[in-house]
UniProtKB/TrEMBL annotation:
Protein's UniProt name: Cupin domain-containing protein
Taxonomic classification: Bacteria, Bacillati, Bacillota, Tissierellia, Dethiosulfatibacter
Gene3D superfamilies for this protein: Jelly Rolls (2.60.120.10)
InterPro entries: Cupin_2, RmlC-like_jellyroll, RmlC_Cupin_sf
Highest taxon in the source lineage: Bacteria
Record-annotated Cupin type-2 domain positions: 41-108
Length: 118
């Protein structure tokens, strides 16, 4: 499979506790990657994900903008090329910390791929 992010459908993420976020699915089981999903999120000014935890890990890589990761009681500043591994059951939240779009890639197990309409 070879494609471009510009060919991916934009999904508004409207889960409770989320504000000003859109996402795109890059690679998923539909493309042959069994068990995992790679997504891109764009968080607009004053946007954030809900503060939550879940029983699976995920990996995040910052593509652009500035953000903050709240992880298990601590705030971590993020910028382009920052990355993180978020262990299962750790409370976390990603927030835009600037005026530009905060953009990051996120890889989760398939069961963690929620909040996208079909």
């Amino acid at each position: 499979m070879v494609s471009s992010e510009k060919n991916c459908k934009i999904h508004e993420i409207s889960a409770p506790g989320y504000e000003n976020i859109v996402g795109k699915v890059l690679v998923s089981p539909a493309d042959g990657w069994e068990g995992y999903v790679m997504r891109i999120f764009e968080v607009g000014e004053n946007g954030f994900s809900g503060r939550h935890s879940h029983d699976y890990p995920h990996i995040v890589y910052v593509i652009g903008g500035k953000g903050t990761l709240f992880l298990d009681g601590t705030d971590y500043p993020l910028e382009k090329e920052s990355f993180m591994f978020i262990s299962p059951n750790k409370e976390h939240q990603l927030l835009n910390a600037g005026q530009d779009t905060f953009k990051f890639m996120c890889v989760v197990p398939e069961r963690g791929h929620v909040g996208f309409e079909d």
